[in-house]
Amino acid sequence: MQVNKHRVEPPSTSVECYWKKPTLSRVGTTLKYITVQQMSKKEVPDRPSTSALYTDFILEAKKRKLQHCELIKYQDIMKTTFNRAAISAIEEATRMQYKSSLWYEMRYGRITASKAHEVSVCHTPDGSLVATIMGAKIPDTIAMKRGRSLELSVRKTVSTTLNKKIRTCGLYVCQDNPMLAASPDGLLKDTIVEIKCPTKAKAKNNHLKNGIISEKCKAQVQLQMHATGMKKCYFCVADSNFEETKNVDIILVKYEDDYVNNLIKNLYIFWKKNIYPILYRSTSL
């Protein structure tokens, strides 16, 4: 009888010990945490990189001649570049700037230099900044009116001080980044000119303080230089009482390649997330 009992009982090595619990059940007791890798001993299969998968998808979609693929449309837009002839034609046709209807049309959906700093630090996807880029009307402030009324007079003063002729210019669309554009206040042979006319003495610090250009204005003139292909800028800030003093502070600003590359990356991210979707929805496939 005893012999038969031993025969029907399973070997001790085939029965799992009661104290051998799954590793996950120990979390919170003797084991403080567990990683995903520890939960599975299986090898994770190799997967293609995201960029490789994206490229393969685009190639296959084009091979099949898909007509309603958002990725293909986006890729085509991002590969768009403006040739020199087109850039020159737009610039020449928009030299009246705010008096030109084309100037407003070409700014639609583009991040302009005057908005560069604001865009680079913005984290609001549906605020007034996006609305402005998409053509919303901006209130005509006292500062804006003063800038327009004094610009010609300040330009003449700067021209006399530098002993150089300043010519007017229109909107420059960036050749390799057509979602960006800039409208300097004037051009010399190899230098752009940007003019500021603050209404109050304290407001001057918003543009220039202790001979140092503000971050907002730096982003503006750096993108202007990038758009025009020039490497220098005369940044000119008129006195708040310029009408009496005729005084203008003139600072020479040089192009900073690393700064501009980083700025453009930030502008591109904002445009991709917040502007492109609006443009895409507003056009039929």
Automatic annotation (TrEMBL):
Domain YqaJ viral recombinase, residue spans: 103-230
CDD domains, per database record: PDDEXK_lambda_exonuclease-like
InterPro entries, alphabetized: PDDEXK-like_dom_sf, Restrct_endonuc-II-like, YqaJ_viral_recombinase
GO BP annotations, alphabetical order: DNA repair
Signal peptide: none
Name of the protein in its database record: YqaJ viral recombinase domain-containing protein
